[in-house]
Amino acid sequence: MAAAARSLLAARALPAAAAAAAGGAAPYCTVARQQQRRPPPDMRSYLWSRYREAKRVTKELVPSIMSNMLNPDAIFSNNEMSLSDIEIYGFDYDYTLVFYSKHLHTLIFNAARDLLINEHRYPAEIRKYDYDPNFAIRGLHYDVHRALLMKIDAFHYIQLGTVYRGLSVVPDEEVIAMYDGSHVPLEQMSDFYGKSSQGNTMKQFMDIFSLPEMTLLSCVNEYFLKNNIDYEPVHLYKDVKDSIRDVHIKGIMYRAIEADIEKYICYAEQTRAVLAKLADHGKKMFLITNSPSSFVDKGMKFIVGKDWRDLFDVVIVQADKPNFFNDKRRPFRKVNERGVLLWDKIHKLQKGQIYKQGNLYEFLKLTGWRGSKVLYFGDHIYSDLADLTLKHGWRTGAIIPELRSEIKIMNTEKYIQTMTWLQTLTGLLEHMQVHRDPDSQMILEEWKKERKEMREMNRNFFNAQFGSLFRTDENPTYFLRRLSRFADIYMASLSCLLNYEPDYTFYPRRTPLQHELPGWSDQLCTGTFRIPFLQETVQIK
């Protein structure tokens, strides 16, 4: 894990070192003193010389950063946690124990589109739209009343340039006019579980299964707009939501996967390896999923083996999360080998049996598995993790499949070059904005334009429409904010656990606060990289 540690150090060093190359770029008291000094006689020459020097330093920094790559198979920590304290491991099924191929989202999109046409009387012409796996990303918000799909940061600000009406981007000026700026008030944001309810006008799409839903919404919106058809956005949202739900509820998706399991399920022998490793170390394991019994059984036999139930102490299907974690009224029902629901009263949750419905309070009563000795993994930050960490004190692990691909992008030389120069240029702008003469302001405007272009380039590294799942131009995304709050650890897949011993302790990186940067982070970076003109004043001699 030494390599992972070096990678984390590099990630921390990149922005601060680049800022230092720009001439400090920190809110030091010296900035006020610099404003009082007489400006150099030729500001144009001076500023462009600083620009060229910053470019040179940035180029020198890149090889050092390239030597410390982030590990795509690492586990990242939001909260200190030792696996030695964990006695019981719990798992969701979909996109946690099992991963699906790209064909599944196409199946969901096509099936929901056909339901819109056949059951909701939508125009047959929408059948011309196909699923585009590269259009949307997880974590986006949808304004139900305005039919707008957008990316929002941790502070409720819309990232301009990422607002889409149908399949077309909405101009920034129009967005600002609609929202009286780019901030979305708290009362308009989605509710605790990301839903649009009780007056909330925004819906947040957190589920991986929601990617085809967002794309279908955008395609139907596009059709109506292109053909000048007047429609009610609220009705469209509800009809698409119901169609996507019916693909699950009516068993369309489940039957298709069971009929061609090799097409839809990505066989992953490491799932078995993870479960076997935990079992070998005496850990108890349980499964709580919203998926039906026969579907889970066939999938687990495919990826783990016919004896998969022997690895789990408790198996619960059709749990109806997140209601499972809050509703105390629903009792468990045993499911027999033929899938028939039995009427016996459940006094004990037995190994080798499958149970349906139930609730967490009864689960805790029957098992005694409480508190921080339990670690539960899931892909849905709200439905799987939020209640467990806030109300029940379980430790939580988020499975974020997109993490692996984003880290691989972040490890490319092109990305590192772009981000290092973007950080340096930002620092240069901050440091040199004290010069208010016309020549200086003209140059600073040129730099701002370059910075804007580079931000758009950075977005395109990940997704041409919405960029990274984890960041907007300036801030963490709203998705990352919730991930940081509800997940103790997060990783690309469960297989990442194979890289760690069962007594390993995860320590979160100390992320410097803005007022801490001058105190120690800059010193760390300037000790690691020799930065020219860190203490240089703006006065030319």
Summarize this, please?
The protein is of the alpha/beta class.
Write the layout of secondary structure elements.
Elements: H1 2-21, H2 30-36, H3 43-66, E1 76-77, E2 81-82, E3 88-91, E4 99-100, H4 103-119, E5 141-143, E6 148-150, E7 164-165, E8 168-169, H5 172-179, E9 202-204, H6 211-226, H7 233-249, H8 252-259, H9 261-264, E10 265-266, H10 269-280, E11 284-288, H11 293-303, E12 314-317, E13 332-335, E14 354-357, H12 360-367, E15 374-378, H13 381-391, E16 395-399, H14 402-410, H15 413-432, H16 438-462, H17 478-486, E17 489-491, E18 505-506, H18 517-528
Parallel strand pairs: 3-11, 3-15, 11-12, 12-14, 15-16, 16-17
Antiparallel strand pairs: 1-17, 2-18, 4-10, 5-6, 5-9, 7-8, 13-14
Helix pairs in contact: 1-3, 1-15, 1-18, 3-15, 4-6, 4-7, 4-8, 6-7, 13-17, 15-16
Pfam families: 5_nucleotid
InterPro entries: HAD-like_sf (IPR036412), HAD-SF_hydro_IG_5-nucl (IPR008380), HAD_sf (IPR023214), Pur_nucleotidase (IPR016695)
Binding site for Mg(2+): 92, 379
Mind explaining what this structure looks like?
With 541 residues, the chain is an alpha/beta fold. 44% of the residues lie in helices and 11% in strands. It is built from 18 helices and 18 strands. The strands form 5 sheets. The protein has a 9-stranded mixed sheet, with helices on both faces. Strands 6-5-9 form a 3-stranded antiparallel sheet, with no helix packed on it. Strand 15 (374-378), helix 13 (381-391) and strand 16 form a beta-alpha-beta unit. Helix 13 (381-391) packs across helix 17. The chain is globular. Mean pLDDT is 86; it is low at 1-19, 24-36 and 519-541. Its cofactor is Mg(2+). Residues 1-20 form the signal peptide. The active site is at 92 (nucleophile), 94 (proton donor). Keywords: Hydrolase, Magnesium, Metal-binding, Signal. One of its GO terms (molecular function) is metal ion binding.
